Amino acid sequence: MNITLEKLLAPITEKLKYLLKKAEDFQTYLLYSRDRMQKEQFAKAMPTFLQMCQPYFHYLESTARSCTPYLRPPQEPVRKRLLEISQQLACQLEQLVLMYASFSFVSLEDTDPFSISCFFCGKFWMNETRQVSIFRYCISAPYTAAHIPHNLYKKMRWNLDILEGSAARNQTLRTEYYFLCFRDTGDETTVKMQKLWSIGRWVPLDPDSEHSSDVLSWVLCHQPTGDYQQLLTIGFEEPSHTLATDLLVQMLSAQSSGLLNRELSCWLGPGEQVQ
């Protein structure tokens, strides 16, 4: 990275250093403090710290990815560095949460409303009507609480907010949910299960929010159920946080252009990047 780029991104990298130092402080108190009450206080402060990182994630992803008549992605070296910073911070926060969970100070259970099962990693505009929000699961969680579909686990989620309608005052907001998942392949006789990674869409079954706006159906539903519509097969190598979002954007762009009408395959080897 040349000196010009370093100077350009100096305020951003300084903010990264500050947040990484905060994360390190959380780890230090957990590992070396003998005061359990103090550790519990830090655990209670964890959600606040994650929220403190949200505007920074938003800036990184929005600056690197947003594409509207008013927002354009920066030059490729800047874009690449911003996404590297986003990935670095996300990985550090994930390790921090996992460490506190290993000492039973926080819960990672997806069904626990007080857990830290996932955290926000930024959002960006694909165009003037489609905004993507990124969430990362600290551990691979079953796709649904009922473990249906079987052997399917989620690692990332993207909320796609779509503004529908022409006039601003008549526009309505619709949200679609996409997931980075893996499916255990093999059977009971297999010595080592392989993880087949893919990106797919949440398909609501009950209540069917796509075809019904009946609020009562949600109130009376004990546990919403949904299926997984696999849209992109990635392969047996887990994609990075950044690469997975790149693949999602390419897939959604192909969908909106009418170029995608079937499941795609994108087999990536170790270290490969999407073009």
Topology of helices and strands:
Elements: H1 3-8, H2 10-32, H3 36-65, H4 76-102, E1 118-127, E2 130-142, E3 152-164, E4 172-185, E5 194-206, H5 215-220, E6 225-235, H6 241-256, E7 264-265
Parallel strand pairs: 6-7
Antiparallel strand pairs: 1-2, 2-3, 3-4, 4-5, 5-6
Helix pairs in contact: 2-3, 2-4, 3-4
Pfam families: DUF3314
Protein name: UPF0575 protein C19orf67 like
Organism: Crotalus adamanteus (Eastern diamondback rattlesnake)
Judging from the principal axes of the Cα atoms, what is the shape?
globular
Straight-line distance between termini: 21 Å
Total strands: the figure is 7
The chain-level structural class is alpha+beta
**Quaternary class:** single chain
Short description:
This protein has 6 helices and 7 strands, in the order H-H-H-H-E-E-E-E-E-H-E-H-E. With 275 residues, it is of the alpha+beta class. It is globular, with a radius of gyration of 20 Å.
Structure overview:
The protein has 275 residues and is of the alpha+beta class. The protein has 6 helices and 7 strands, in the order H-H-H-H-E-E-E-E-E-H-E-H-E. A hairpin with a 2-residue loop joins strand 1 and strand 2 (130-142). The model has no long low-confidence stretch (mean pLDDT 86).
List keywords for this structure.
275 residues; alpha+beta; 7-stranded mixed β-sheet; 6 helices; globular; DUF3314; UPF0575 protein C19orf67 like
